[in-house]
Amino acid sequence: MALCFTPQNHMMPVAAIAALHLLHLLAVTPVLHAATNVALPGCLSKCGEVSVPYPFGVGAGCYYEGFMLTCDETHSPPKLFLGNTSAVVLNISLHHGRLDIDNGIASLTGRNPYSMNWGVPLDDSIFALSSFWNNFFVMGCGFKFQVMLPDSENMIVMCNSSCLNGQPAVATDGTCSGVGCCEASLPGSSNMYSIKLDPLGAENGTTEQPFNASFVIAEKEWWNTNNHGMLLQKAVSDGLVTPWGIPGSAPPLQIKAGGKWNFRNLSCADARRSSDYGCLSSNSYCHDHWNGESSGYICRCKHGYEGNPYITNGCHADTHECTIGDKYPCFGDCINMDGSYNCVCPHGTSGNPKKPHGCIKDTEKFSGIGCGGCLVLLIFAVILLRQKLRARKAKKLRNFYFRKNRGLLLQQLVDKDIAEKMIFSLDEQEKATNTFDVDRKIGKGGHSTVYKGILSDQRVVAIKMSRRAIQSETDSFINEVAILSQVNDRNVVKLFGCCLETEVPLLVERLRIALEVARSLAYLHSAASISIVHRDIKATNILLDDNLTAKVSDFGASRGIPIDETRITTAIQGTFGYLDTECYNTRRLTEKSDVYSFGVMLVELLTREKPHIYMTAAGYSLVEQFLILHRQDKLSEILDPQVAKEGEEEARVVAEIAAMCVSSSGEDRPTMKQVEMRLEVLQSAATSIKNTKN
Fold first, then answer.
1. pLDDT by residue (tens digit) across 28-87?
2. How far apart are CA 686 and CA 694, in angstroms?
3. Is 612 or 90 the better-scoring residue by pLDDT?
4. Rounded distance, CA 124 to CA 291, Å?
5. Start-end ranges of CATH 3.30.200.20 in the chain?
6. Is 610 assigned a ligand-binding role in the annotation?
7. pTM given for the model
């Protein structure tokens, strides 16, 4: 069955080209129902085993332009051909716009390269072989096979097939992987392809033997199903395909290739406005379709209808779905409707009637619902019981910590009535801080985190929570509670109470108005019932309220010094950069240790540098660099430009005070009371100058 080839090499004395039908090793069964594909009245509706639906047709007046078929009744059974070509039609699908053909086979032998065009001579706007469904299968060996579209050399697909010693020239096991057979995809959906065959080694002149090649365009699924590929290879290997024909005793084999077709190369929108719109049946609709080569449209019957949409009233008024159980399953009561059907469960049952045993009696359903409801209630009861057990365990744990922490606190507090009034519950603290929301965090130290809280009486407080649950941290917390309970000064944060219901105690500190850190420390050193050394004065332990008023905070490291003593020996504690160098070397704690730390804080205010991270290239700390520049009268090199601009003289005085406070010897440092007085004088002078300018 020669489709069409146009030789482009005129020197082919050895080669013979044949397009032939193979022996009938198996047949391709058409997949069409005559009842659903209707021809025009008086026209042939079937040729052999293949239905002929309009717009296809055999004979004058029976087909639409471009869809002519030929029925050759000299064969048994009769064969249907595409127009006047040798392509045999195997199946026509109206709904999917598909056309399956027997594409034939071509054979070439020789030593010289060959070029040709090979395909089906039909209008590309109507029909095209699908590159998605089909491949080239080239049987034989000793060649390089190339294929491209005739009007484009941009897309070239190729494959090689080599011959191995001792192996037959054609593979016979159904494989097509480069030995005795090779496979190449179609470069695009089309009706015609440019083929080129070269002997292996021709490019370097090392051709060893003549090549032989037999190639087909076949559907990939067909090749890999029911050993079709292997049977075709054996037929070629056994010489059933020769340059001179096929032995007459063998029946033909049909090779299936899939193509797509369009009724017209118009979109549905344009087709509806045209005078020759193809969807003539009232129960049909237009479907935009791409045949792989060009866009167009096909017609389909509406859902629930069958027939031919290209003929007036061609789509049957209704398909009786209830009588076609395999296509329209229904295991309940089936009700036929116009264009569709309805499947419902019988009375007294419910479920899915389209599935076997899908309809269940309502009593069984209610029983299942009851069991499901009981299961839900049981799960709910288990969850509720678990929550109550957890709450009970948490309550016991809170009571345990309450007793433990309360005992430690009361050991250091003289007035037990005051202690009782200062105790807050954990629920109150969680509510005040929105469960210790990270957005409420206003500070963080080495031992604790400070949160902003709002009590039920709308008091704004700071809530300090220790981060570690070890005994030393608990002792530090109790120490801070004990110290702050004895302090009542407006310059020091006021202690309102504490929570003892967790393993890590909580500290509640009132954000009150205060004047200056120096005045606060002076009070702690001299005005309190015992002299209190803070031991950890630094910027992060100074809280600021909405009015930017300073409040001394974090007394976890504080120590009390009896009135009759001036110093005590203790372990080193404080923050790097603020830590008193003399205390660090001698381990002797005095009030001057706070003076040193306060001086460092003044240096920080003057320079806007962080003492714990500042380091010069020469290795000097912030305090050392400050003292060096102060002695050299070069403070402008380290002072914050804004500070120097707004008050150069005041900055110089503060620098003098800071230099005295950070003196290496405690005896050379002033007391906090002296510092307070110097700063008050400076503040008064600065205020007077400001008022005079105003």
1. 333 333 344 589 999 999 999 999 999 999 999 999 999 999 999 998 889 999 988 888
2. 12
3. 90
4. 9
5. 396-512
6. no
7. 0.47
